[in-house]
Fold each of these.
Amino acid sequence: MSQEELLQLTNLLFPKALPTPQQLEEQYPPRNLPEGARVTRYAPSPTGHMHLGNLFSAFISERVAHTTGGVFFVRIEDTDKKREIEDGVSAILQDLASFGFQVDEGVTGVGEETGIYGPFHQRQREEIYHVYARELTLQGLAYPCFCTADELSALRERQEAQKLTPGYYGEFAACRNLTLDEIKAKLDAGLPYVLRLRSPGKEEGKVFFDDMIKGKIEMPENTQDVVLLKSDGIPTYHFAHVVDDHLMRTTHVVRGDEWIASAPIHLQLFKLLGFKPPKYAHIAPLMKEDNGGKRKLSKRKDLEAAVSYYFEQGYPAGSVKEYLLTLANSNFEEWRKVNGDAPQDSFAFNLKKMSSSGALVDLVKFNDVSKNVISRLSAEAVAKAVTDWAGEYDKDFHQKLTRDEEFTKGIFAIDRGGNKPRKDLACWRDAVDYTAYFFDAPTEYDLPENISAADAAAILERYVADYDHDVDKDGWFNGLKAICPDLGYSPDVKAYKKDPDAFKGHVGDVSTVVRLAITGRRNTPDLYAIMQLLGKDECVKRIQNAMAFFRQ
Ligand code: GLU
């Protein structure tokens, strides 16, 4: 088409007055950020709650921005009405907030946007996309295509039968060379159309780019006349990505590696529009071990793929993020060893240290990481988090926890702090069992084989007779030792080991019996601290109950 015809075509397709690209450049100027500061985004479709993979890529984007003094923004990619679900945006924002992500710009609440680079919902940017679609049409780089779905599938079948590259390109792009009159006639007839790119790509052409994670990539140039605007005037992902990430001044696009295949389209569009492309960081999907092999973590098969799983079990957000950091940067664990209590944010996250193949999600490892994270929290923080969790997921437990808040805090203070904190809890749900005997006296006692019920009863009878509650820990332990000789037990473990036949057992066995009476368990945190927290009356009552049980 001649220049004149292109102008006519452009005016036919875009009759409404639009801003010029120059005006948009001025409205969305380059950001004034310090050297090295990176601008990243999380760009979800509003399809509901996040999956672990979404969280991983959002977290990496966020880290890239915030470890460089840059900007992390959220853009809602709502161009596909069919995939959208009600409250999809609020679910995503809730998840982001639950993980404590600081969103600097973009969609920060339902119906709430921050920053001058918006709007940040793609459906509200229609006019902006049309500015560039208009520009490409005017330059002969875009054209309307009236092919129907049936015609396109017939084309694909023909290409497949002839073993040709499928798609709408070159000689197969039937609408590429329609004349202005032909187009006018179709428009007059009210035929629906999409706007396609007239790809200048050559079959033998190559594109190169340096992916921040995957390294140097060489791919065939794009030759497909991809759709830019769908028949309702809404852009495809490809077109929206290029326009938005240019105008929002994104410096680093962190996204799933399923998009690598489309990168040649994107790079071509950046070039044709005269935009500088961002750096890409394509993340491999999270993986899972399955039957000795590896497969992608699956939304459908794997409970742990949904972030709701972590909330329901009561894993602290800090644990999930800590684990994702171990997956993201192999040097994170080393760093953590040296910087025990340092906040996660002080770790110098580095995109270049990400593995180019998919990280393996391992719940056993995750639980270990979470136990460590929880062991570093204060008693107050644990008590509050467990109580909040129970409020939502276990009403019975919540009642117990809120009966006496000091008591609850006391439970979680036992064996906390110090160099070797216990690591009993991986998630708040574990606290139900962990705290059970604090709230309810035991009713069953499983004695070790070497202690008879009669001996256990004798130990408890003797112990309760002299029980002194108001002593320090040494005094308490001395109390246990003091009753040993009369009962035939050795107060000293070494002495017992030298001559086991001379005793029924040693002070350790005596304390096991007391522990069982108080807690119903053989293994607990510091028994002295437990007894102090329960109080004298409760301890005496429990010892008497157990005594009665052993005498039955
Ligand atoms: N909306 C796209 C998706 O959900 C985002 C990809 C991107 O980050 O560019 O896959």
Note: The chain has a mean pLDDT of 96.
Amino acid sequence: MAYEYIETETRDGVAIVTLNRPEALNALNAGLIAEMGAALRGFDADPAVGCIVVTGGEKAFAAGADIKEMRDKGYADVAAEDFITDDWEVLADLRTPTIAAVSGYALGGGCEVAMMADMIVAADTAKFGQPEITIGTIPGAGGTQRLTRAVGKSLSMYMNLTGEFIDAETALRAGLVAKVVPQAELMDEALRIAAKIAGLSQPVVRVAKEAVNVAFESTLAEGIRFERRTFHATFAFEDRKEGMAAFAEKRKPAWKNR
Ligand code: DAK
């Protein structure tokens, strides 16, 4: 399918969605968000895709929602059309594992999109920020919520109240990103991780993802109970039996995704 604001490809069970509006540092206009939503939904429904990598350009993953698209709207406009709500959370709702590969600026909505992925792999050039406060507004897609859960109150307050950016090493220390690599190695590393995930038993990977996500929506006791029951449920998969047999027989497992 031909897109205007993104590029897509698949390689060995891994889908890549590249934000491609470099002249505006991948500012997330309505068209880009709609295209990204359509592409992500399509890959999520494709059983041949075992992991999705979302990435941007070298200078910017995305510098935020498109400020020029928002500037002339009034409250009545944004409330009436439920402004930029459609498609914004698609990435967070997928069952397929997702990786955000971030180089350069991930600001405002760009930081929020990255945080919707299951993990962030960052180039050493990455800069994360929620600068909405500097343009007279606040985040609208998780910048006060997912960021706070990821990095804690103090760093989230600092970022949300000053709009200042943090670098990749700070993001790594704070737990916002899983890994930092030299910029030139970003895609190789993101694709290596994605291929590893795509090469495992897909139904088991999906329940592992679901179990981790329950940690954000439940008490510890409820989460542990969910994990225990889901662990028991993996014994219904042929792949669980195959994985343990392969270990005991010192061979590679042959996953059936069943
Ligand atoms: N929107 C529109 N255009 C942008 C943009 C943005 N966010 N960021 C950059 N651009 C454009 C610039 O206007 C410029 O265009 P031209 O002037 O060449 O036409 C081009 O990209 C290159 O940018 P600069 O010339 O500014 O490049 P610099 O290297 O000098 O600076 C920068 C890079 C990233 C520091 C700077 O561009 C910048 O500060 N950008 C804005 C960052 C920002 O404030 N981001 C937050 C936007 S508000 C919601 C979902 C999401 C949101 C809200 C609600 N719902 C689901 C309800 C999100 C809101 C936001 O993200």
Note: Residues 24-25, 27, 63-68, 84-85, 88, 105, 107-109, 112, 131-132, 135, 140-141 surround 4-(N,N-dimethylamino)cinnamoyl-COA (CB under 6 Å).
Amino acid sequence: MSRILDGTAVSKAIRAEVASGVASLAARGIVPGLAVVLVGDDPASAVYVASKGTAAREAGITERTLRFPADLPESALLTAVEELNRDDTVDAILVQLPLPKQIDSARILRAIDPRKDADGFHPVNAGLLLQGKPAPVPCTPAGILELLEREGVPLRGTRAVVVGRSDIVGKPMALLLLRRDATVTIAHSKTRDLPGLCREADLLVAAIGRPGFVTGDFVKEGAVLVDVGINRVTSRADVERFFPGDAKRRAAFDRNGSTLVGDCDPATAFPRASRYTPVPGGVGPLTIALLLRNTLELCRGRRLVAPSE
Ligand code: GUN
């Protein structure tokens, strides 16, 4: 029997812990501040940014969203980031990705003060993660690790395969699992015999961004499956393929004209797993919870250290 790994429940617990940490700081007159920067009008990014803002405020964090038009010149964004770097009320800065194409994302991420890097995307923090040193860690993989540990999924000595090699998920995920003594392989679109390699995994993390890509023939019976994908599908044929006989999904699709599917095929991959993260309600809520925790940690790091340190 497959059982779900409940990202919603774990994210609630983390958010409560953050809220209590924020309250302790508030008692000392310190209020953590998060600045979110959104450039352009990508609807998915707008939804994510709104949820991040709401969650921050619920935890007692002061949140400010800076919105800019899609044709913003790179120099103007650099100036905005530099102002946030200098602003003492801002402890954490998040620039929502993707950025419009006239802007070099790497240059913007490098401009964020590494001590205010809410996402852990700055090369200094990526390097610290590589070396296993304390640093803010990208929120999605950090959230997945929390979920696996809190749900008692064994990692030491297990074989883990991470499908996807992005800087945001795949690479940091692999490093975090390695830090927990898993034996880790990063696979990607050019990997030979991808299904065969994935079938060796005790823990399979799918972070490719293609709906239902990981089918049952990728999954060893009893493996743990982490589905990072959030893909909106709009065709009835896809709904029939991914959710056969699921009247609730079909009704929701008829109401909304779309539904969410991860990178795993729920019809064939999930039933083979011992435990899996559903979509929605698996990995998604954890990303926001870990953003709040990173904000709290950055605030503590910047404001509680002695001036001589
Ligand atoms: N776009 C998609 N995921 C993320 C994320 O974790 N952080 C930022 N900044 N942008 C994203």
Note: The chain has a mean pLDDT of 97.
Amino acid sequence: MKHRRVLRAAVTVAVTGALAAGMTMALTTSANAGTTLRASAAEKGRYFGAAVATGKLSTGAYTTILNREFNSVVAENEMKWDATEPQQGRFSYTGGDRLVSHAQANGMSVRGHALLWYQQEPGWAQNMSGSALRSAMINHVTQVATHFRGKIYAWDVVNEAFADGGSGGRRDSNLQRTGNDWIEAAFRAARVADPGAKLCYNDYNTDGINAKSTGIYNMVRDFKSRGVPIDCVGFQSHLGTSLASDYQANLQRFADLGVDVQITELDVMTGGNQANIYGAVTRACMNVSRCTGITTWGVRDCDSWRGSDNALLFDCNGNKKAAYTAVLNALNAGPAIPTDPPTDPPTDPPTDPPTDPPTDPPTVGCAASVSLNSWTGGFVASVKVTAGSAGTSGWNVGFTLPSGASVTNTWSATASGSTGTVRFANVNYNGRLGAGQVTEFGFQGTGSASGVTPTCTAS
Ligand code: G2I
């Protein structure tokens, strides 16, 4: 059983010296302390979430707790690759859509988990490699993120790509063997497909400053310096009987790189320390202003993948455990995420006399620019269309592709042709642009598109 292997890896990080000073801190509750996890987290500008197996949404005892206590959900399995693309190019969103509807009806945000992961690949993808796999994986990212566009708060774009042990390097997998740039290619494709979602890298055994978390830290720093779109890092936090003393410091060093951090799959082995560890993790998140929320990997002990570990906040009868109280108290005692400083009051109106209106005639037309994310054998093109000063009621962008290049997939435009001269027309919702307004579309292809330049015509 694959997930057993992960569990062992996750809980054998025996980090000692665990719960330092913070644990003995007296917990006070503020005057307007919340009485549920969701209310208390929301008061502090954060979310408190749970992983949900959507089949359980029809169990009343389960859903009662979920709706009362949590304001964020993540699909435990239903948005993974094997669930969403069981056969190549045939997508299935039943479970994921059901969870999104439940979330929307109950005031919950949704974390998306996970676009690319070496586990739970569908069989057809397990058998692929090289540029065929690279194209298939980028297509998967594009299609799934496009389907859920606008509905996901944060996506785990890539899950568990780093190796355990002391190397600090990447984990071997067929995804990794498509080339070291697979992670950034996935993030760029996800950004194009759902520009509103925060894009996260997510992993386990990263619960302190260690070789693995440092490998990830270096990747994030590199991505930020090169403009690869990454917004957040998820710390799964499948924990044993102790907590790294530098858990909070580790979150903070990532936050200092300019990304949000989130606790994404929290569960803690039962035992004397369980409530203390839950409290300490919550306090650590509260103390890091860019820690935007916490998700536990399930609701009740019996819902957990960790079986007899009794690792969650509610027992099998739905009763709140001591760990629940520790979390609630820590949420209520913690600081709120600082809000943006008030903006300066408006300055005095300018006293200059009004200038003459511009005399230039409006520019009929549009401009287009392209940014390419290329790898050996394929590419994703992101195209920006800017309306001239007369605006547009429609636009059409042409490219002449080098020989050997072929368009395989297009979003937010309609393609005509796939090789040679290819044209992309607006779709019904993005043709009408005001003066200077910008819209974006994209396409994916095989071969190389390097050096292509777009021409834009407006109507
Ligand atoms: O392994 C714990 C988590 C580690 N981080 C990534 C998470 O995505 C992962 O979640 C677990 C789910 O909680 C399990 O429910 O991922 C496992 C897969 O590696 C999930 O287990 C699978 C079983 O392996 C399948 O046999 C089963 O069909 O759950 C499937 C649906 O119940």
Note: The domain at 366-458 is CATH 2.60.40.290 (Immunoglobulin-like).
